[in-house]
Amino acid sequence: MITYDRLFIAGSWTAPSSPELLDIRSPHDQALIGRAAQARPADVDRAVAAARAAFDEGPWPRTTPAERIAAVRRLNALREADAETVAALISAENGSAGWFTRAGQSGLTRQAGAYFKAAEEFGWEEALTPSDPASPTRSVVRREPIGVVAAVIPWNSPFSAAMAKITPALLAGNTVVLKVCPENSLSMGFLAELLERTGLPEGVISVLPADRETSEYLVSRPGVDKIAFTGSTGAGRRIASIAGEQLKRFSLELGGKSAAVILSDADVEAAVRGLKFASLLNNGEACIAQTRILAPRSRYEEVVAALKDLVESLKVGDPGDPDTFIGPMIRRDQQQRVRDYIELGIEEGARLVTGGPQVPPGLERGNYVTPTVFADVDNSMRIAQEEIFGPVLVVIAYDDEGDAVRIANDSAYGLSGGVWSADHDRALDVARRLRTGTVTVNGAPIAFDGPFGGYKTSGIGREYGAVGLAQYVEYKTVAL
Q1: pLDDT tens-digit profile of 304-330?
Q2: Are strands 2-4 and 258-262 parallel, antiparallel or unpaired?
Q3: Which residues of 108-140 are buried (b: 16+ CB within 10 A; e: fewer)?
Q4: How many CB atoms lie within 10 A of CB 201?
Q5: What is the model's pLDDT at position 137?
Q6: In what order do the strands lie in the sheet with 473-479?
Q7: Running DSSP on this structure, what letter comes out for residue 213?
Q8: What is the pLDDT of residues 262-295, one digit of tens each?
Q9: DSSP one-letter string for 149-208
Q10: Is 2-254+457-479's fold the same as 258-448's?
Q11: Hey, where are the domains in the chain?
């Protein structure tokens, strides 16, 4: 049992406005694993007021980039030292398999390293070369912090989402109110402990677990200058409308329904081995999951059979078991949502290759679903168009490369995707034609130096590296 009966506001643990604590239960067996205070509007008021004062009057925005880099490096070092604790907390509250949460720790180190490199090389203040040498005016461009950032993150990968926002926000000199999901109160409470040990100035950062209504109160509140959001497309639309009304800066990383294009010359066995991770990471509860598998008609049944063998070989169960690959869904309603989509796929006429809506035997106490593969799927079906957020794959046949690109792009989303081929140039040509923010070729890992984000309804703005850091600055030109 872990208890956080106070909220981390402005750098200190303080009593919440409501003494009621939320029970945090294991997705594996519903056991009570913790209790935590939840923020209400009055707590948001305190956090935003402190962040506003810290930005307007405090030292943090006026520190040098080197000083800010050193401070955020301390935070990352503390997280690295307690990586096993971080991984275990996320597995306990989210149901994410241990292999995923542990692997995520090295990913966080690489993510932070890319931000540090970008901050060290960033043109915080640059003199422009005049386009007209005869002009008497000389100009200096400054990149300055925006102000108070409301960072709102989802439940599926809390540390990754939190660090992707607070790292560049702090490096740029902003102050931050981080709103996290109630389900993640334990891991995000631990993040708050790490922030306390980092020793940032008073008011620079707060961490508030809270429900959706309190989240909307935060992003709507005067005193917030920028909203950084990761979550559903529906919630992103609401945030964009609020930001538009108030002319606040905002960036959105939203949903996905990504396609994996297996070309006719691909090594199917190798491709399917790669899709084990690209399509089913984090129990399928991942916006980047490649859940639409596009296969050439000439090799369609070969791909379907290989995916069937793969999915049936995966161990489903306790996320604490080192042999488990897929754990439970985070909540009962998410479990039911995924099962409903499986029922829908059957109703739509797709061929159920393996899996189904039944709960895996012996796991009825948890929020488990049976990993499922559908074949004979038309891209117009809802199971091919809507984000299921669970271990459900659909296999779609295509005629030629042009047809594959058309089907892959026939989606409201455009966040991620993959291409599999024995010919590098052929794969790269297809990757260039996909309307999506990130494409991996033959399972190459995503590099955190490059920008990450979505086309279409998958978002606005980018994260990671120099482009991600630039989302947290204002540009000022000084004419001399």
Answers
A1: 999 999 999 999 999 999 999 999 999
A2: unpaired
A3: bbebbebbbbbbeebeeeeeeeeeeeeeeeeee
A4: 15
A5: 85
A6: 125-127, 139-145, 473-479
A7: H
A8: 999 999 999 999 999 999 999 999 999 999 999 9
A9: EEEE--SSSHHHHHHHHHHHHHHTT-EEEEEE-GGGHHHHHHHHHHHHHHTPPTTSEEEE
A10: no
A11: 2-254+457-479, 258-448
* pLDDT per residue as tens digits for the range 365-420: 999 999 999 999 999 999 999 999 999 999 999 999 999 999 999 999 999 999 99
Q: Return the DSSP state at 123.
A: -
State the catalytic residues.
253, 287
Only one residue has tokens 């631990």, namely 190
3-state secondary structure 290-302: EEEEEEEHHHHHH
Amino acid at 315: K
Tally Cβ neighbours within 10 Å of residue 356: 15
**pTM over cut 0.85:** yes
Fold annotation for 2-254+457-479: Aldehyde Dehydrogenase; Chain A, domain 1 (3.40.605)
258-448 topology per CATH: Aldehyde Dehydrogenase; Chain A, domain 2 (3.40.309)
Tens of pLDDT, residues 263-272: 999 999 999 9
